């Protein structure tokens, strides 16, 4: 199926072909014709599927239809996103795809001076892309008129709920026409009960559009778990990046403090690294991302919220330095790689205390993530898959404690991998199987 057959205008087709897109992605094939018909949709599409063009193209086309008696100050399309990065990314897509069409768009988010936003809104805006908190600031100041919104888009709705935006969303819904008098599009990577409740309030007989199995991850992403002691994670990470010549890797930590510390430590190991998180100014975040994209920074260490909406073409490696507390975040994190048909790897460094988090993620994925024990980092050599699968190791205690621990010890202040000579560059795989089969064995002490 070609873009031409979707019913898009010549101006949009031109912009799409200038982007070098040859054919629509599955979400675009399904969503664009339905949105063009004016119907509501509830789309299960993860990041990396091309969902942004899936809604920006038809909404730009909608703007070419005239409405009578419209004041220039009334916003026609409202796109809500959970983070500033995602808002900026959607705004960039609107600029790109709408470059041959007359339209006025603005992006508003917190953390920056509100006055330029007020000026822009005063001049009139057709498409407004906003994060909920700052939008409500404008509503309170009466610097924005949402009473005539024709299309509402909720992008990454699951993330908005995770971030506690539900009350803000409800307040915004009171400012716009009711669901029978507007078109509503809801995008979410996962479908929890809360999302379905929100969809009931928000959508009018929506068409369900789903491109990947619910709560599944993009197939092109190779996922791996490396078991490792907590205190050796940083050593292993530096080693993997250095020895495998990774040039661009996005690393996730759970906390802002942890992100700062890890970026500092990696820099001490000679790897150019920078941290990106909510405490950094918008300018610092934008700069870090630009440096990372152009290759002057090799490792970007990010927290979940900061990484939301990052769109980096062909990002080959994502590392979970720490597993997320919320299993859905794992899907969002690894969706940063394997985008738009490219292959990618997502590696999780899992310490024994994170075992439950891993089990929660696997339950959500409905599959086991392959475990690869790296030589030098194994904790035991005894494999007892059947006992482990049952979650019990029935060996006597003495046998269970016989781990035959071959971990290399640090000598002369140098980590073990720095002393190893004559070995292949990458840590070797010593075994590979499903997590449950190995978990109890690897983490048994
Ligand atoms: P998204 O899921 O919207 O974040 O998009 C992920 C990436 O896919 C972005 O870098 C887009 O530029 C790219 N993309 C979107 N549509 C297409 C397409 N039809 N063909 C190739 N790449 C695309």
Termini gap: 55 Å
Helix content: 25-40%
Helix tally equals 19
- The share of residues in extended strands comes to 15-25%
Total domain units: 2
How would the global form be characterised? globular
Sheet having the most strands: 7 strands, parallel
Number of strands: 15
The set of bound ligands, ions and cofactors reads: adenosine monophosphate
Query: Can you tell me the residue ranges where pLDDT is under 50 for at least 5 consecutive residues?
Result: 380-445
CATH superfamily of the largest domain: P-loop containing nucleotide triphosphate hydrolases
The computed structural class is alpha/beta
The CATH class of the largest domain is identified as Alpha Beta
Short description:
This protein has helices spanning 10-18, 26-36, 51-63, 84-97, 115-123, 132-141, 157-162, 166-173, 193-202, 233-243, 256-268, 282-294, 304-307, 327-334, 355-365, 385-389, 397-400, 416-419, 435-442; strands spanning 41-44, 77-80, 105-108, 127-130, 151-154, 183-188, 207-210, 221-227, 249-252, 273-276, 299-302, 317-320, 344-350, 371-374, 429-433.
Describe, in plain words, how this protein is organized in 3D.
- With 445 residues, this protein is α/β, with parallel strands linked by helices.
- It folds into two domains: 3-210, P-loop containing nucleotide triphosphate hydrolases (Rossmann fold, 3-Layer(aba) Sandwich), CATH 3.40.50; 221-382, P-loop containing nucleotide triphosphate hydrolases (Rossmann fold, 3-Layer(aba) Sandwich).
- Helix content is 38%, strand content 16%.
- The chain contains 19 helices and 15 strands.
- The strands form three sheets. It has a seven-stranded parallel sheet with strand order 3-4-2-5-6-1-7, sandwiched between helices.
- Strand 12, helix 14 and strand 13 form a beta-alpha-beta unit.
- 43% of the residues are buried.
- Mean pLDDT is 80; it is low at 380-445.
- It binds adenosine monophosphate (AMP).
- Adenosine monophosphate binds at residues 21, 24-25, 28, 47-53, 311, 313, 339-340.
